[in-house]
């Protein structure tokens, strides 16, 4: 608690003695980014040279209230917002300390430290209103006190920017425009055509449940808590390692597989999954673990088939495309990621998915997006939550 008070009083000392033109070398941009749209509270300090496309992560901290939501079997927005309030200042403070350490900025005041930061980036939406408000109001206060401009960032548009980081070893020429870009998470399954950083058009995606939501709901049918996706992947792996003989064929539907557009629909898949689970369980031939592993495997195959088919269709329509990006929580799924990699390699295109830690919500992607959209810089007084 005392530490917080010192941090806040430091912030206001900065405000009282601020200079109008803070910042350092104009060719390097250093951004402090904050993400608080759901149950993660994250802060990162990222940097890019004006003539480079690659973003470097200088410091990063993420706190999550996931455990609270496991207790309630789902996210209670008010609980998430209260947890954001508890975490936001310690997370920022920890990131600044880490920044001072990695940059060897020893024995300096907070005011001197923040003179190394050019702007603050903040997620303004979409997300849970209470959670967003905590991050946005904190960012506005800091921008006001530190005399920095703010860069408002759309969370969904930012996800693919987790691919444009130098520490991302899977990246192969990620800024290979034009590109196709999938954002697949708990809330989204969106396919974008990225002509450049400024021309990003949604060409298809979910018309009902997202792929992540489908994984989560099916995992719940099997008795697993949120987030269900990692459990589905684990069960599928167990099935492959120990495939039983004579398991009756269950072929889950691939909704909209043959539609001539880029839309996806996963709500029916959940219903078919629940029915198949009931039927196999009633059969009494196989134990519960085997049934769960088998169905999880089939589910992963069904979702992957749809995403791969839609990607193939988009590659055939947009012949000028040079690469495909995958991002969002579901990008952590290695089966999906490998299948897309295989397709793009066959087609002679590049493919990139973020390392696991930047698939789910984080502040690095927010800072990375901001570094490619510096023209969005504005005064703290112009920034508000945008649902
Ligand atoms: O991007 P994210 O952290 O939060 C949202 O913005 O929704 O994504 C969370 C989603 C959840 O639906 C979770 O089940 C899914 O990502 N997910 C996975 C895996 N890891 C997380 N889905 C499939 N396989 C995984 N390994
Ligand atoms: Zn997200």
Summary keywords:
387 residues, alpha/beta, 12 helices, 10 strands, 17% strand, binds 5'-O-[(R)-(carboxyoxy)(hydroxy)phosphoryl]adenosine, binds zinc ion
Main sheet attributes: strand count, strand direction, barrel closure: 5 strands, mixed
Gap between N and C termini, in Å?
Answer: 32 Å
- Please give the share of residues in helix: 40-55%
- Spans of 5+ residues with little confidence (pLDDT < 50)? 16-25
Which helices and strands, and how do they pair?
Blueprint: H1 2-16, E1 28-35, E2 40-49, E3 56-64, H2 66-71, H3 77-102, H4 110-114, E4 119-125, H5 129-146, E5 149-154, H6 155-158, E6 179-184, E7 189-194, E8 200-205, H7 211-221, H8 229-241, H9 267-283, H10 288-317, E9 323-327, H11 334-346, E10 350-352, H12 364-371
Parallel strand pairs: 1-4, 4-5, 6-9, 9-10
Antiparallel strand pairs: 1-2, 2-3, 6-7, 7-8
Bound molecules: 5'-O-[(R)-(carboxyoxy)(hydroxy)phosphoryl]adenosine (KG4) and zinc ion.
